[in-house]
Amino acid sequence: MHPSKSIQDDDDGPGWAAAFVRGEGARYRQIVGFIERAVGDGRLNPGDRLPPQRELARQLGVDLTTVTRAFTEAKRRNLIEARGALGTFVAPPKVELAQMVDLSMNVPPPPAGVDFHDLLQRGLSQVLLRTDAHLLMTYQLGGGSRADRAAGAMWLKPVLESVSPQQLIACPGAQAALAALILTLTQPGDAILAEPLTYPGLRAAAEQLGRRVVTVATDDDGMRPDALEQALREHGARAIYLNPTIQNPTTRTMPAHRRRDVALAAQQCGAWIIEDDPYWLLGSDAPPPVAHFAPSQVYYVATLSKCLSPGLRTAYIRLPEARSRAGVLAALRSFALMSTPLSTALATQWIHEGSAAQLLAGIRTEAFARRELARQLLFSADQAPPSGIHVWHTLPSYWTSLALTQAARAQDLRVTASDAFHAGPTPPNAIRISLGGVETRAHLAAALKKLAELLVRRPQMSREIVV
């Protein structure tokens, strides 16, 4: 019988438990997190025996009920398994036939130290207590209620410093906001200027609405101001699309001086900027938005889908100074009469009473831990991925992005090839890997290990069977 795996450092290596952290959630959930992180980084392996519950409670300085509750949750997550009198062991990976691991969709990870189910239950209870249920189930004016717009102003204050609720429009997601702005600012056939690697949703909306996406040359800091001025004059464009913070897909963050220079170029040419900024609150030390440098020139779009939850279906447009709401609202109502009242009310409730900030903190903590996993398994020490919920991985020369994504799919992994983001004939040889969509850190670690093994193997030449 193997001895129990120590929770503290011993001769066999580092232990698997850490110190409890105030404000990081209930202690039983922190214990589950200790186990999950240790499985993810290899300090605990399938078959390792954990200390008996009473002994573990003594070592951790908690009561038996806390450990029992932690083990129950860890079993639910398939992290551990009980073997009767033999004890409790780290469970082997669960085999799920034909289960694709999705590393292709950018969604926020499950928040660390936050009971999301409890947060959702309490939030909805408060919404129903404070709001007439009939109003949640009927048509409402688009653009959000006064409370919705006040919540948006609260949410954006750390980003924009000064924002008035009267400047805001609440939308059913950023994609709806982008489509409404394209309809407002451009005419059929017009060019929209963007970087060569850009959000696929922009290209899809532009194509459906009869507009053209024209690319502008970039350097390591992002869109070049001189190339932007040239493109504005050459194409007569009136709209520029930017995603300057933790850019999707490259993860590049445009420095402050470049934001200022791009804003100045747009002002000089009389063009509007659509600043799509879903990741600013996930970043560390992000510069002020482009809207800070040209508040009268920028339509600023911020969604809750990437930093809280896609299910909230809530985004905010901050209008440029002295711009009328009527045009944007008319465009929005042509295809989305209103935001979903219940989910928007929940977002408003969470922001006003502080749950949104708690949820964001948990997501930032989990996103950091997942990037650390990606750094350990996919990158060298000097290639640590920046803030955010996705990484951009340049492939070795023997892989093409298309071949790699196909090979990954054969291994039940879904990643995104660079051509999904690139406007032009020769996309870079890279893939985007999204870190938030996998339920647990242990499952993410297993998926990233499988991807790392695939990356170091050269693609196999297909051999057709002749019969």
From TrEMBL:
Q: Which InterPro entries match?
A: Aminotransferase_I/II_large (IPR004839), HTH_trans_reg/aminotransferase (IPR051446), PyrdxlP-dep_Trfase (IPR015424), PyrdxlP-dep_Trfase_major (IPR015421), Tscrpt_reg_HTH_GntR (IPR000524), WH-like_DNA-bd_sf (IPR036388), WH_DNA-bd_sf (IPR036390)
Q: Superkingdom of this entry's organism?
A: Bacteria
Q: What class of enzyme is it?
A: transferase
Domain spans labelled HTH gntR-type: 25-93
Q: Which residues cross the membrane?
A: none
Keywords in alphabetical order, please. Answer: Aminotransferase, DNA-binding, Pyridoxal phosphate, Transcription, Transcription regulation, Transferase
Q: Name one Pfam family in it.
A: Aminotran_1_2
This chain belongs to which protein, by name?
Answer: Transcriptional regulator, GntR family domain
Q: What is the lineage of its organism?
A: Bacteria, Pseudomonadati, Pseudomonadota, Betaproteobacteria, Burkholderiales
